[in-house]
């Protein structure tokens, strides 16, 4: 499985930005979960948003109400719409995927649960 993220850039506080991630190599007999993580300088990688193969969605508390994750299985893509951006949202954003499991919706924030990673795209929120 290969993932490639697009859409990062520089945006002013309060602005919006949309990220896209194109995936390839999914086995058609398997179900995959998708998520976005981010990593700011000097900080650990953290889960931002998650969508299961069945459409269950979770968000980090810090982005609830501002970010929206969605997936398009026909295009093997996952998206992250980010609104009302704050300086603390500045980070490299990674899309990730792994085979869906029964426990993943409860443990999605753990980096070690994710096996396939994109290259990351920089998001900078600054005036």
Explain what this protein looks like in three dimensions.
The protein has 127 residues and is mainly β. Helices cover 3% and strands 48% of the residues. It is built from one helix and eleven strands; from the N terminus they run βββββββββαββ. It has one helix at residues 104-107; strands at 2-6, 9-11, 17-24, 32-39, 46-51, 57-59, 67-72, 77-82, 91-99, 116-117, 121-125. Strands 2, 4, 5, 6, 9, 10 and 11 form a seven-stranded mixed β-sheet that branches. Strands 1-3-8-7 form a four-stranded antiparallel β-sheet, with no helix packed on it. The radius of gyration is 14 Å and the shape is globular. The termini are far apart. The model has no long low-confidence stretch (mean pLDDT 95).
What is the topological layout?
Elements: E1 2-6, E2 9-11, E3 17-24, E4 32-39, E5 46-51, E6 57-59, E7 67-72, E8 77-82, E9 91-99, H1 104-107, E10 116-117, E11 121-125
Parallel strand pairs: 2-11
Antiparallel strand pairs: 1-3, 3-8, 4-5, 4-9, 5-6, 7-8, 9-10, 9-11
